[in-house]
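Subject: Mannitol 2-dehydrogenase

B.,
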Amino acid sequence: MNTTYPASAMAKFTQKTAYPRKELETRIVHIGFGAFHRGHQAVYNDLTNQLTGDYWGIFEINLFGGNALTDALAQQEHLFSVIEKSAQNTTSRLVRTLTGAIHTPKDGIQAAIEKLVEPQVKIISLTITEKGYCSDPRSRKLDLANPLIAHDLKNPRAPQSAIGLIVEGLRLRREKGLNPLSVLSCDNIPENGALTKTAILDFAAQLDGDLAQWIEQNITFPNTMVDRIVPAMTPEQFTAIEKEIGYADPCGVVCEAFRQWIIEDNFAAGRPEWDKAEAMFVADVLPYEEMKLRMLNGSHSFLAYNGGLAGYEFIYQCMEDAVFRKAARHLMLQEQAKSLSPHLAVDVNQYAALLIERFSNPNIKHKTGQIAMDGSQKLPQRAIDPYLTLQQRGIKGRALATLIAGWLHYVIQEITQGRDVADPLNNEFKAVIKADAPRWQQALSLLNIQSIFGNLAADNSDFIHDVQDAFTSIETHGITSTVEKLIK
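Prediction pasted inline below.
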């Protein structure tokens, strides 16, 4: 078993920072040591340390899953690899910015709380996915009935959720008279800072109104827009790492070469100069994140559900199909782009061309099944909201309706065939879908779930008509024929 990163691998990296790691100070505590964080924020931070000489260390906390990842990280002295692949080139990068890691089921929640209360900590950052915020996707309020939240409200000193953990950490920082800090969401969610703030304040208010007021007055929650395709790791990906550096790094990730990070410059206790590593600090993130969530993520979801129905395992395979490639471009430019703010100072044609190129990269094995996960949390911002905006502007959202119809078929297929859907509403899907009901009745039962669709099923006949038309076409004529109709 390794007790350090192999010297033979260290010698093979094409990109490696050289700042003194012994001078790293844990000023960022990050919750959610997943693949995206390793390929995105950690890379930016490592590069920034090198470029500025101001050494911000990141300490990692994992609340769920097994402890193999954090154990392996400790054995490697908290070093890990990032293999960046374009269609033409491959770069191997060693990331050196981590100061430690804990897995709370193994190390205990108290160890995590204590890290948040260290006086030098200036930022708590998060990649916990949409469901980790325990919020209703339509109202964006904290879901007090969520089992994790219900537990934490009864046991606030021994939380299980990220929201409960942060509130307990902030309570103790206030009690000890420590400096305020910032809570920085790095998840792919619209207005992620505002969502985080609402969840934290809603939780705190249930416990102590004065604490909630202190948080509102002292803690900042910057919005961010994050972008880099970092697929879930597979045996094939670990083999790709081993091919590059001669070591199958269990903590390494393989991702695309492109990366982007746009951050609202609203920090209570300072922040790294991430802009030196090509991040962008702005006053308002919303126009950028709306463009990305709709044009990139909405198209990803379209390909995930409909490409999955067509039998494609990976996004790049969808793009090798001329029908799906043209349909993705149509969705981006003829629907999603037309739902954006008219004041957005971005060339959407150029952006769409970049997205098509990124989606087509055969070196990035991004599974349609991975993107399809947690659809109940993603559909509102990726499909429903842009459809309604187009409706207000007198534009038909046929491709968006087809995206939603593809999701309906995906969920119905999984449930009726006895499989669980990787979604926090899986149990609700099981409860409302009757196996012996006609297909469209099964779809309507999903369209009546208010936490996803609100009252659209009852109040918006055009929406239901368009979705039913696409849904029936998929059922009757097949997915490829249905998608092809979008580009004729």
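The longest strand covers residues 25-31.

T.
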